[in-house]
Design a protein that fits this description.
Oligomer: single chain
Number of domains: 1
Structural class: mainly alpha
Radius of gyration: 15 Å
Helix content: over 70%
Bound molecules: zinc ion
Strand content: under 5%
Shape: globular
Number of helices: 9
Largest sheet: none
Length: 160
């Protein structure tokens, strides 16, 4: 796995620009996000659902932009974090899509407390401390939802 590291200063600058709605920064991030969504949707959705999933996931993320920006904590590179967000939203949209054709998943999955995107991003980027790494691994051991997010994000990041 190769996640680019050491771009933290640039990332903070980028996120500050996004927070004040700098158009060039927004364009750049939106096109990186589109690429990430394409890769994740390709991995998680059927060919028929692919475009629908990528487009609705992009819409969901742009709607929640402020929350997404506020959730990044600087441990993982911003793009790794964004890829985790893309993976989570894509998987959710993909599940919603497949539910139109199949049975509902067990409702227990929705109620538990899941890993935060920033924790998954830190895990994916190898930036978790020992204690958190233990918590993350324990959670991943018992949670298929978060495991799928990690796998989809890693697949998208290594395809770069
Ligand atoms: Zn979980």
């Amino acid at each position: 796995m190769s996640v680019p590291k050491g771009a933290v200063v640039d990332d903070r600058d980028l996120v500050a620009k996004l927070a004040r709605r700098d158009p060039a920064a927004e364009d750049w991030v939106t096109s990186r996000l589109r690429e990430a969504l394409e890769r994740v949707a390709g991995a998680v959705a059927t060919a028929e659902a692919h475009d629908e999933v990528a487009v609705s996931a992009l819409y969901e993320i742009l709607q929640a932009e402020e929350r997404v920006l506020a959730g990044w904590d600087g441990r993982a590179p911003f793009l790794a974090y964004l890829t985790v967000v893309a993976a989570r939203v894509c998987l959710h949209e993909g599940d919603r899509w497949s539910r139109l054709e199949g049975p509902l998943p067990a409702s227990g999955e929705r109620l538990r407390e899941h890993l935060r995107d920033a924790d998954i991003a830190a895990h994916v980027a190898g930036e978790t401390d020992e204690r958190l790494a233990g918590d993350v691994l324990r959670h991943l051991d018992g949670c298929r939802r978060c495991r799928r997010i990690v796998e989809a994000a890693l697949a998208a990041l290594t395809a770069q």
